[in-house]
Amino acid sequence: MKKQAALLSLSLLVASSLSIPAGALGAAAPVAPAAAESQPAADSGSAAGQHAIMIPLRYAAELLGARVEWNEGERSATAARGASTLKVWIGSAEAELNGAKLSLDAPVQLVNEQTVIPLAVLEQFAGSALSWDGQQPVAQDDLSLKGTAYVYHLLHGDGERLAAGSSAALTRTFGTTSTTTALAQIQALAAGHPKLLQAKTEENGVHTNVLLDYELDIPPGRITMVLRFDKQGLVDDLNAYATTESLYQPAVYDDPSLYTEREMVVGEGDLALPGALTLPKGDGPFPLVILVHGSGPNDRDETIGGAKPFRDLAAGLAGKGIAVLRYDKVTAEHTLKVAALPRFSLEDETVADALRAVELAKTLKEIDPDNIFIAGHSQGGYAVPLMLGQPQGASIKGAVLLSAPSGNISQVLVEQQEVALQLLKEAGQPEALIAQQQAAVAAYKSMVETIQNPAYSVDRLPEQFPLGDPYWWIEQRDYQPAELAQSQTTPLFIAQGENDWQVSMKQFEGWKAALQNRANVTYASYPSVNHLLAEYGSISMGLEYGQPSNVAASLVEDVAEWVNKQAE
Predict the structure, then answer these.
(1) What's the alpha-carbon Rg for the chain, to the nearest Å?
(2) Are residues 186 and 224 in contact, defined by beta-carbon separation less than 8 angstroms?
(3) What's the CA gap between 377 and 523, in Å, rounded?
(4) Taking the complete model, does pTM exceed 0.85, yes or no?
(5) Which domain holds residue 104?
(6) Cα(327)–Cα(332) distance, integer angstroms
(7) Is 229 helix (H, G, I), strand (E, B) or coil?
């Protein structure tokens, strides 16, 4: 959904959008301690001189993501980072690194109540070459260490250091309301004494992503910070989420011998998106399905809990001779930059990138340009009529709508809460819980009344609005997808899970009623399928989302059959 509804909420399962900023970077930042004055006689510009420099352990180690503890009785300091532990004693020229004795070039000192150690020891602890710039250790070629230093400065509100490590595109977002809010949220995590558990680096066609997994002393206990570095080694974006172990398992119909995959880039410029093209084995050109996400900052697999619906669809359709293009959503890859945009709409979030993917597909030699299809899930399907209404929509041969609202999305929010209330009552839940849900229904109704209030417009927005950016909602408050689709002619396949509490059968029936005079619309509903397009034997209330699941094989079969028939 809209950008600011995705602002960081580390108590939630779903990853959220953040903003970091320098406007709020007015928060007092710690002064970086200088290296100890009592240096060995060496040229600090040479490699030997750099290694001999005595540096403050706590500050330098925390920049690397370590947690440092002082033992007054032993007059020792211990730094822990990932699987590595470094222990030093004041006055001793010996240390312990992961339990093994380590001889130092100079004894550990206590200078101005700071434990100082040779830089060379910190290098061994970090497992990477470091230099000292006069204020902090610098890792020229290790993005994970650059990342931990960036997070440290972020947690401590050091705007000058953040700006120096950020791209121009990211720096332009500094000072906005959304970034100020996000900074405050992130800075609150400093109270949890973050300790780096592990660092991982991943490449995509747009960024080099450094994933830093931290342990905290406060809820949620563990978080993952994702820093997106550009080609110049500067942080271009950032997001964070509560760390959960992935329970996903590939579907039984996912046979890697039937397809290949390669990285793609959708669009260009500051908001280009990385993605993947899944191609069936064999000779093309192939029909193509472009997958369009639901609400929230989704990755290309539309990962939530133990499910990856878009990965399942890509593998399943490729096994049926259909190519698939999927990509990371703009609110996932560019969370900070998007959150700072003053007028961010459904068009910006969902429609524009899907149409850019269509234009890209037309240039690919493996793809039949006359057989390009769109498949939108939830909000992605809700936006399909908007896509078809654009000039580029003429290149779309057909569209698949998966659990897509037929009415305005604001009304669907109220319906979700009402369905949840009914399910709680039917399950015999405690009165206190039912009363809480009744209050939620009333609150959402009030929010929708605000959205529909004619006193407000895109040029006169409510000052207080609990669903994030009111522009996103008010800009499309009159949009009725099923009504718009009445006058369109592109063939549609509309699929709905009957066990879906987020988009109910009422929405499915809304499509049927609105499009009853169209002969080129196919409908299918699936009795036990939930909102993640997976079969679930009990009544879905979303509690099952964390468990492993896959898109129902019958749904994959039906989509493949319909696409291949349209492509004949």
Answers:
(1) 27
(2) no
(3) 15
(4) yes
(5) 47-135
(6) 10
(7) strand
